[in-house]
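[DERIVE STRUCTURE TOKENS]
===
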Amino acid sequence: MKKNTAKKFTIWISIIILVLVIFLSPLFAFIKSIFVMSIYSASESKTSLMKKEGIDLKIPGGYSTLKKDWYPFVITYNAHGFSNFTKKDVDLSILYNFGAFDYIKGSSLLYSVSSDYHSAFYGAYAVKENGNSYGYNQYGKINVDEMADIFKYDMQVLVLQSIGCDSPIFDFEIKNIGEKEVFLGFTWDVIDANIITNSPLHNVNDNHRAYIQYGKPSAFDTTVDYEKTKVYGRIYAQHIEEKNVTLCFYIIAPSLEALETCETDMIKNSKLSFK
């Protein structure tokens, strides 16, 4: 009996030590992020605009490749504040993903200025405006200002302000509005843009809630908080007339090469159908 008791005690001590090691290590930030964001995303998915309108959209996450590139799965978020931001009667749901965690540093490559995933995101926007075709004019042409507003709200409010950048900048310069492109069996309008905004890298000065998903940038050195940076953006848009929903795939990346890799690996391996 004493031997069994001693063995059980040793096992429990080993488990406690292992838990403490994980809890105190940078890896814990990743585990916490995965746990919290998977629950949150599942909850948001149930009330998303895609769910309401019968848009079945699946975008690959980081687990779909053999590279250390992106966060394991795409997250759903319902942006209820977008209506106030635009002063329009709109619903916006966002699917998004960001750079993978550096397990040693305990935070996302989103912060790493030397990474292909610095300030980088990809995913989809679904927007519905009461009485209008959001992002398109009455002649079916792209309304660039409305499209830019989605990017602006996403980067300024949802990303940068959530990590403590109180006065984020955002300059959206159109480089090209391309010919319609067909992929996934549907036709898309394509917009390419240069974007001047703020880097998410900063010195930690508060316990911002968004650190739950991205981790803290403590291990990445910087002398300038939220430094001005240039990224590249691409939008693939279409207006679904029968649902009055504008659906956009999007990519934001620090280089054109990184953007095109994301397009190949993620966007064009997505699956889309309408119910």
About this structure: DSSP finds seven helices and eleven strands in the chain. Residues 2-24 form the longest helix (23 residues). Helices lie at 2-24, 27-45, 49-53, 82-86, 144-160, 211-214, 256-265. The chain has one domain: 2-274.
